[in-house]
UniProtKB/TrEMBL annotation:
Composition bias type Polar residues, residue spans: 171-180
Domain of life: Eukaryota
A GO molecular-function annotation: beta-N-acetylglucosaminidase activity
Protein known as: OGA GlcNAcase
One Pfam family named in its UniProt record: NAGidase
GH84 domain span: 1-150
Annotated stretches, region: Disordered: 157-181
Recorded name of the encoding gene: Mgea5_1
GO biological process: glycoprotein metabolic process
Length: 204
């Protein structure tokens, strides 16, 4: 029925999206969702070019970066992906994911993401450790990074500008102020306080 996998996927996704009334959040994860899965590159991938052309503009497209688990994300790569997909990507960040190796737990700060990256994104999803309690530092430091990004990038949308202004006086909200080590130390202090609070509750 379809000349290619990409045409088939886009057709089905578009139909479901329209049937649901074109919701404000509708995400599509392509078969080629990182650079290492693209042949020969994101900008020259026939699959991604078709997805970008055929997928309705209101549908968000998920991207994990250079690899499935990306240690670094650069603005240049995201610009390349935006060009081929005809929309800013939504990063599905697997930096802390450990479902592929349950012997490992990742407790470090959110890092490896270039300053000013948020202006290149349509959104960001964090895939955390499977162990719930182990995600305090990852989520806390992601929040610090996000606050810093809001303070340093100018959003074209009115709501984003208001949020940035509201956080303008917050610690770590100025451009270039995010440092993983400082964010880690702040998160650890808050985590200890949370542990102590829970320990003091009756019945604990």
């Amino acid at each position: 029925v379809f000349p290619s996998l990409a045409k088939a996927q886009a057709s089905v996704a578009n139909e479901v999206y329209q049937e649901l009334g074109q919701p404000s959040v509708f995400l599509f994860c392509p078969t080629e969702y990182c650079s290492s899965l693209c042949s020969p590159s994101p900008s020259q991938s026939c699959y991604l070019l078709t997805i970008g052309q055929e997928l309705l503009p209101g549908i968000g497209v998920i991207w994990t970066g250079p690899k499935v688990v990306s240690q670094e994300l650069s603005a240049a790569l995201l610009e390349e992906v935006e060009g081929v997909l005809r929309r800013r990507p939504i990063i599905w960040d697997n930096l802390y994911a450990n479902d592929y190796d349950c012997r490992r737990v990742f407790l470090g700060p959110y890092t490896g993401r270039a300053p000013g990256l948020m202006a290149k994104l349509h959104g960001l999803l964090l895939n955390p450790n499977c162990e719930l309690q182990a995600n305090f530092v990852p989520i806390h430091t992601l929040g610090s990074w996000f606050r810093s990004e809001l303070g340093s990038c100018a959003h074209p949308d009115h709501a984003g500008t208001e949020t940035a202004e509201a956080l303008g006086d917050s610690p770590g909200s100025q451009e270039g102020s995010y440092t993983p080590q400082d964010a880690l130390e702040t998160a650890l202090r808050d985590w200890v306080a949370e542990i102590q609070r829970q320990a003091s509750e009756a019945g604990r």
